Each structure stands twice: as structure tokens, then as C-alpha cells.
């Protein structure tokens, strides 16, 4: 049965020609963005600093008013019915203000009151969320004593207190230690498995690759690419097998015999070569056999696949990893 026939909108998030332009200088932060995010999907939103990622989130969560275009979240127009949008979403932004004098548990209870959750349900719900984000032992401590990672995890718990159908996470793991990052990744996966839609902005390519069902890349306020991580990487090129030869004089013969397996080309030095293949792991054994049959000694061999950074470079002209280092600095 179609979702529309039972009163459920076909997409959790949908925009058409969405724009945000600032009067001073006529600068566009978001320019003509069309996107559709399915129910229960993790949508990764990638872009360098100043590309429009955070502005896009603020438009979708009703913190900013669009200059043009339309946006519907959880079936509600962000301009005509912002209250309905806010009641159906959870939001964890980078610059969330959390009272340092209150405890984590008190903040969760306050958030429950703001969402009209009954008093009887508040205690159990707070305990469950503190456990899920790894803060059970810190629930009664003042937030001023929390580390940065603990605050981000508490912010996530607060965003989930009313069980939203759509969750917005704006660079949620920036600055987190590896264990806190892994805990948040697992929570995002659990939410997706339960049917929650997650709109995730991130500057970490591994995060998008690990979590996102689909990825959108924004640059200069425009959506320049959108697809599954695997499909985007396939657009850049096929996997290749990098081979180091024991004897550089074997290169010509190695290129010749490798052509039966894939598309070989010389490497950056006389003793190495790259062979483009359709499936790196599957064709690795075949390549070993043909080289061995030809009496060619191989010193090293590694399968290398296109990465989201390769995609990002092709679509935006820069490496996202470079912007991560700038942010860290």
C-alpha cells in the first residue's frame, strides 16, 4: 500500500528550489536546492566550510525562513506550519546552548516538559536515553562538569526525548574521541533500524561512508552531487590493484600479461603498475596467477578503491580532508 493512501507523506524531507539569500551583498547561502529524503533513511550532507550545510539545516528546522522555494519536513511546510514541523523533529546543532548548572537528568526532564510529555513517562524515558548515550553514571552531575563529548551525547539524548520521526544532526561527532564517536554511530544505526529519518551533516568522509544510505554534496550553496556512497565512488572510477615489482625490467611483460585480467597502466615509478578492475578483491587472485605464470616476482600488491574524498575533489575542486584539518587547527 502506498504511503500516501494511508495519510503518510511520500518523503520525510522534500525541498523544491529552496534558497536563502542575504540582503547585504545579495549573497546566496543556499541556491535552488531540490532534494527528497525517504522515511527511515540516513542522508549524509557533505560540504566544506561555508558551503551552505548549516544554513540548509536551519532552514529545514525552521530557525531560518527561506528566501524562495518550498520545504516540507514530516509532511509539514516549514513556512506555513513551523510548529508542526518542530513537534515532529529532533535537532542537535553544533552550537546548542546547555545550562551548565543543571544536571543531565534535569535537562532531559525540562525538555520533556517543553514537548508536553506526561510526568509518569519522563523518568523511564530519561533513564533509557541516558543509558543509550552512555551517560547513566553522569546523569546527576552538573553539565558544567561534562567533557565536550559528554555534552554532545547529552544533546543527542535531548533531541530524542519526544521520539521524533526526523532527526537532524549537524556535525555531531566533531571533536569527539573515538569511543564517543563509535557510540554515536551505533545510535544512528539503531535509530535508522527503528524507522527514524536522520539528516546528518558531516565533514568526516568515513562517517558518511559508514552511516549514510545516500549522500548529497553541497558547494557554493548548490547541490552538486547526490547518490549512494557506492554509486558516487563508481562515478569516479573503478577499483585498481597497485603492484610493486621486484625487478623494474619486468614492467613491460607485467603490463602485457595483466591485460588479460584488467586495464593495466604504468605506475609513478619503473617498478610499479596499476591495474583497473571491476571487482578488486575477486580479481586479485587471478592477477597473482598470471604474473606468477609469467615468472614475474611481485614485492607488494594492494587493492585500492575510489573514496568519497575522490568524489568530493571531482565535484568541488578540493579535498574535504583539507577542510577537516583547518577545522581542527
Descriptive account of the structure:
By secondary structure, the chain is α/β, with parallel strands linked by helices. It is built from 12 helices and 14 strands. The strands form 3 sheets. The chain has a 6-stranded mixed β-sheet with strand order 6-7-8-3-9-10, sandwiched between helices. It is elongated, with a radius of gyration of 24 Å. The N and C termini lie far apart (51 Å). 37% of the residues are buried.
Quick description:
Helix content is 38%, strand content 25%.
SSE order and pairing:
Elements: E1 13-22, E2 27-37, E3 42-46, H1 53-60, E4 68-73, E5 76-77, H2 82-88, E6 89-92, H3 104-114, H4 119-132, H5 148-160, E7 166-170, H6 178-193, E8 197-202, H7 205-211, E9 214-219, E10 222-227, H8 229-236, E11 240-245, H9 251-258, E12 263-266, E13 272-276, H10 280-293, E14 298-304, H11 308-316, H12 320-328
Helix pairs in contact: 3-4, 4-5, 8-11
What about the largest sheet?
6 strands, mixed
Q: Main sheet: which strands, in order across?
A: 6-7-8-3-9-10
Helix fraction bin: 25-40%
Cα end-to-end separation: 51 Å
**Measured on Cα atoms, how large is the radius of gyration?**
24 Å
Average pLDDT taken over every residue: 88
Query: How many beta-strand runs?
Result: 14
Helical/strand content category: alpha/beta
Work out the strand percent. 25-35%
Q: What gross morphology would you assign?
A: elongated
Unreliable residue runs: 1-6, 322-329
Order of helices and strands: EEEHEEHEHHHEHEHEEHEHEEHEHH
> Total helix count?
12
